[in-house]
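re: ur question from yesterday

yeah so i grabbed the chain u mentioned. its 208 aa long if i counted rite. heres the sequnce exactly as i have it in my notes:
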Amino acid sequence: MTVLGLLGKGLLAGVAIAAPVGPVNVLCASRALRKGWRAAFVSGLGAATADAFYGSIAGFSITFVIQLLIRELFWMRLIGGILLIMIGVSYYFKRPAPLEAEPTPATKRSDFTSALFLTLTNPTTVLSFLAVLAALGVSRPENLWLTWLLVAGIFSGSLLWWLALITTVNRFRGRFNDQSILWMNRLAGVAIGGFGVFTFVLSFSPTR
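ran it thru and got these structure tokens back, copy pasting raw so excuse formatting
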């Protein structure tokens, strides 16, 4: 496989994992409206970092990590579901902040870590990467640097999706007022909390 071909398939894998609607998509879209492009970009960067982490596990075929994730799937889904529910409740009752308010460095760190942690609490992502890479015909590269190139492509593809999403949402930011942001917070809370309930219930379903 050529270098450009491997990089291109990494990009496609990153987009394929990031694009489906999920709690991080809702979170980034909500932050683009409430806080602006920069805050949403920092959140997307956190999500892309988590995607690259799980993509590296899939790309390097780290068998013992994959087996660990599968073995501890119950607890990770259970804890992840509870955390999503807590974040959803927090967003539902969050009061709208002024749209013109500038994010502080502490806020930026919070935006990054919350999106990173929210993505990492979904351990099935690495299994999705295995399926996507197999569908794209990507086998484990023979050279170490080619595997890192694949991971770089995954990170770039994921980040490209977040850039496209938040840029599109940010274009409509001027049309929202405090009341609209309040309802957006509630919608985000219901969506994220709903994903949390689904993840929590899924933790009790048989894995075989």
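noticed a couple things. The longest helix spans residues 144-170. also The CA atoms of residues 82 and 196 lie 6 Å apart.
anyway ttyl
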